[in-house]
Amino acid sequence: MIKRNRHPDWKTALRVWWAYTWRFAVLFVLPSMALSAAIFIVQPPQALRTLASLGVFAYMVWLQIELFRRLLDMDFGTFKVRLEPKD
Asked: Is residue 7 part of a domain?
């Protein structure tokens, strides 16, 4: 049975996401989107697809932060995720 603790805020979830997931986005996803936009800038339909994919990417970032927030809130029975301050 999964029990919920006090709700972590978005700031904490964003800091956890920022520590891990953003590196993948910055190093791989954004440069590939910029490159595809630069290549297809002469063809407007392709450029519009790139803009649409940026919207999907922004939604996925929001979804990942929300997922981290919920995971930080859950007790999984035999374990739970806990953040400890660095000394």
From this structure: yes
Whether 82 maps to a domain, the answer reads: no
The DSSP H or E segment spanning 67 is: helix 44-73
Condensed to tens digits (0 to 9), the pLDDT of residues 66-81 reads: 877 877 777 777 777 7
Do residues 72 and 17 make contact, with C-beta atoms less than 8 angstroms apart?
no
Both tokens assigned to 10 = 């978005």
Which pTM value belongs to this model? Answer: 0.49
Domain span at residue 20? Answer: 3-74
- Asked whether residue 58 is domain-assigned, the answer is yes
Pick from 69, 75, 64: nearest CA to 21: 64
Domain count, the chain: 1
CA-angle at 81, arms to 71 and 6, nearest 5°: 65
DSSP β-bridge partners for residue 75:
3, 80
